[in-house]
């Protein structure tokens, strides 16, 4: 690894530690040229499937978009950020385990609704009412009765 201070090509690993979750390796490095120390982090890069939208176009999977829509549904609800992050992690794991290169946006929407239903019923109804584009009160009341 190149030194960020002097650009020397060869640095030495002084210490290596694994994170508590075991998904990140932290390395303390020392440059023999300038004798400065710095930290690097190593984690596995997983390829998420591409998202196929209703119109047939494809885009990259964007965790922040999903989190933003979940946070909007959860606005002013008693759900912590840690719970939302855990729900997102479960959703991403389901997509990775499926082992597909592409996933329809409708599938992602269903997974989000399933996670919101576990977290908070009100947020689930908020998300579902927008996601499913209810056209009448009857559809809305049927959803509430199903809960």
Describe what this molecule looks like in 3D.
Helices cover 44% and strands 20% of the residues. It is an alpha+beta fold and 147 residues long. The protein has two domains: 12-43; 50-146. Strands 1-2-3 form a three-stranded antiparallel β-sheet, with no helix packed on it. It has a three-stranded mixed β-sheet with strand order 5-4-6. Strand 2 (24-30) and strand 3 form a beta hairpin. It is elongated. The termini are far apart. The mean pLDDT is 89.
Which short descriptors sum up this protein?
single chain; 147 residues; alpha+beta; 2 domains; three-stranded antiparallel beta sheet; three-stranded mixed beta sheet; 5 helices
What's a quick, concise take on this entry?
Helices cover 44% and strands 20% of the residues.
Biggest β-sheet: count, sense, barrel?
A: 3 strands, antiparallel
Shape summary = elongated
Gyration radius over CA: 22 Å
What average pLDDT do the residues reach? 89
Q: What secondary-structure arrangement, pairings included, does this model have?
A:
Layout (H helix, E strand, L loop, with lengths): L11 E7 L5 E7 L6 E7 L6 E3 L5 E2 L3 H11 L7 H18 L3 E3 H15 L1 H11 L5 H10 L1
Parallel strand pairs: 4-6
Antiparallel strand pairs: 1-2, 2-3, 4-5
Helix pairs in contact: 1-2, 1-4, 2-3, 3-4
């Amino acid at each position: 690894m190149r030194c960020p201070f002097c650009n020397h090509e060869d640095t030495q690993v002084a210490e290596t530690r694994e994170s508590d979750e075991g998904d990140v390796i932290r390395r303390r490095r020392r440059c023999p040229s300038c004798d400065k120390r710095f930290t690097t982090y190593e984690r596995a890069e997983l390829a998420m499937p591409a998202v196929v939208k209703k119109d047939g176009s494809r885009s990259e999977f964007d965790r922040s978009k999903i989190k933003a829509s979940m946070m909007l549904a959860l606005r002013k609800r008693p759900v912590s950020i840690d719970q939302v992050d855990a729900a997102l992690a479960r959703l991403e794991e389901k997509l990775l385990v499926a082992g597909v290169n592409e996933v329809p946006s409708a599938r992602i929407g269903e997974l989000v609704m399933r996670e919101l239903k576990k977290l908070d019923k009100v947020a689930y109804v908020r998300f579902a009412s927008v996601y499913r584009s209810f056209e009448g009160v009857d559809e809305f009341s049927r959803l509430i009765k199903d809960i």
